[in-house]
């Protein structure tokens, strides 16, 4: 039976802060990235999120703390944090909607994930 998931995540750090490049040129998950992924996973699991199968539609509304930053970097950071929590792999996402708003007092990401029809 298809179900829609709706939950809130913390506002993610920039993708550049999550995956910095080492002196040797390799990208790695930073301590800030590990911390964000753990917090996002805990919040999603507490909201009752479980891994979904099949193709998915994802909507993310980003409420940022200040007028700066690249929306697409935040989308990828949130997608990566939900891998293994809300879906097996972000390749399951076939339709994505992302919007950006301002909320200095309560930065967050409101996420909706639903299966495609058919």
Please, could you describe this protein's structure?
The protein has 118 residues and is α+β, with helices and mostly antiparallel strands. Helix content is 27%, strand content 28%. It has 3 helices and 4 strands, in the order βααβαββ. A 4-stranded mixed beta sheet has the order 1-4-2-3, with helices on one face. Helix 2 (31-46) packs across helix 3. The longest helix is centred in the N-terminal third of the chain and has 16 residues, at 31-46. The radius of gyration is 14 Å and the shape is globular.
Write the SSE topology.
Layout: E1 5-10, H1 15-18, H2 31-46, E2 56-64, H3 71-82, E3 93-102, E4 108-115
Parallel strand pairs: 2-3
Antiparallel strand pairs: 1-4, 2-4
Helix pairs in contact: 2-3
Largest sheet: 4 strands, mixed
Order of helices and strands: EHHEHEE
Q: Tell me, briefly, the overall form.
A: globular
Number of strand segments: 4
Output the radius of gyration.
14 Å
Question: Which residues sit in consecutive blocks of at least 5 with pLDDT less than 50?
Answer: none
State mean pLDDT (0 to 100 scale). 93
**Distance, first to last CA:** 12 Å
As laid out across the biggest beta sheet, the strand order is 1-4-2-3
Task: Quickly count the helices.
Answer: 3
The secondary structure category is alpha+beta
Q: How much helix, percentage-wise, in residues? A: 25-40%
Percentage beta strand = 25-35%
């Amino acid at each position: 039976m298809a179900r829609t998931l709706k939950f809130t995540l913390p506002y993610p750090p920039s993708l550049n802060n999550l995956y910095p490049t080492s002196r040797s040129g390799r990208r790695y998950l930073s301590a800030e990235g590990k911390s964000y992924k753990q917090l996002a996973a805990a919040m999603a699991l507490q909201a009752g999120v479980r891994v979904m199968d099949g193709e998915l539609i994802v909507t993310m509304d980003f409420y940022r703390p200040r007028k700066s930053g690249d929306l697409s970097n935040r989308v990828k950071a949130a997608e990566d944090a939900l891998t293994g929590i809300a879906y097996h792999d972000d390749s399951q996402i076939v339709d994505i909607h992302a919007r950006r708003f301002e909320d200095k007092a309560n930065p967050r990401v409101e996420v909706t994930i639903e299966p495609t029809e058919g």
